Amino acid sequence: EKGGFEHFMLKEIYEQPKSIRDTMTGRVPKDSHGIEFTELGWTEEEMAGINKIFIVACGTAYHAGIVGKYYLEQLARIPVEVDIASEFRYRSPLVDGNSLTIVISQSGETSDTLAALKEAKRLGSRTLAVTNVVGSSISREADQVVYTYAGPEIAVASTKAYTTQLLVMLMLAIYVGRLRGTLDIAKAHKLVEGLHDIPEQIHKLLENVDQIKVFATRYGSSEDAFFLGRSLDYAVALEGALKLKEISYIHAEAYAAGELKHGTLALIVEGVPVIVLATQPDVYDKTVSNLQEVKAREAMVIAIAFEGDDSIAKYADHVIFIPRTDKYLAPLLAVLPLQLLAYYAALTRGCDVDKPRNLAKSVTVE
Ligand code: F6R
């Protein structure tokens, strides 16, 4: 049942080329400049009437929501708020008939997310569910549904569901951006072309994991780790830290790279592993200067950067290269080394990877 893999988590990590391909099928026509969502059928008029988007979810799905905010704000130019479901449902959110509330849930059964969805509906919002389970409670409650086609996710730690959620959020942003005229044809076309390459690029990354195994073994004995990045890299850093905590029980924190000096820079001492994501061109130089700050404190720095970025090796102890792609697509690739680092660190520490302590696959109680 694990298809030759030692754990479901590893099997599911390796299923990502397929789950990404399946989630694109029919939605990213090869010769088209845009995205098709026949299940939505939204119109220009409808989209002109939406002035605010709320994205609500828990855990890993919440992290996908943070990426979704960047996508929707930058490509479709609509203000987006991202909320943790257990906060949203109790904070009297300012949701109304001109809002769209998007809930993201792999299982479609998470109780806080379902309650948040009901609250958004009660306040008059349009609602859309992004979920992996057909016929789930959340899919039945929402006005509309876009499915991720990750296939069943058995491991408690979410991997392939997360990347398909990122993909759906990007496709939605392209779709809405075209309807609202905020995204030009040439840029949409470039993104769509980039998407077609992603499954093969993931495959390529997953072929070459020896270096990651070595790093994971090395920092498996650490008690703390830090993940830094700016912009979309920060959103991915949050997920990297959660993955590591969940399955290896190494304490991990993600920081927006520029925020570290406003916080616990004092914890960055000799030998502490710091994973720095540096895939975003607009903030690249700033990120590299943050990298140098932690290096100056003798942290053990692993950078995640695009192939061909030769300069970063001067500053980091190690570099994990990911295939080149558009900045918006980078999260789909950059998270893979983080999933694998978490997996192999957990293995080194003898943890039960598929069933981490105190965690349920689907949280149906508050
Ligand atoms: C993390 C993880 C959890 C879930 C969260 C939401 O690996 O599995 O954080 O992401 O419980 O679950 P869903 O997406 O089913 O609503």
UniProtKB/TrEMBL annotation:
Single Gene Ontology BP annotation: carbohydrate metabolic process
GO molecular function: carbohydrate derivative binding; glutamine-fructose-6-phosphate transaminase (isomerizing) activity
EC number: 2.6.1.16
Keywords: Aminotransferase, Cytoplasm, Glutamine amidotransferase, Repeat, Transferase
Domain SIS positions: 43-182, 215-356
Reactions listed under catalytic activity: D-fructose 6-phosphate + L-glutamine = D-glucosamine 6-phosphate + L-glutamate
Active site: 361
A GO cellular-component term linked to this record: cytosol
Protein task: Catalyzes the first step in hexosamine metabolism, converting fructose-6P into glucosamine-6P using glutamine as a nitrogen source.
Identification of the protein by name: Glutamine--fructose-6-phosphate aminotransferase [isomerizing]
Protein species of origin: Phascolarctobacterium faecium
Lineage, top ranks: Bacteria, Bacillati, Bacillota, Negativicutes, Acidaminococcales
Shown residues within the full chain: 244 to 609 of 609
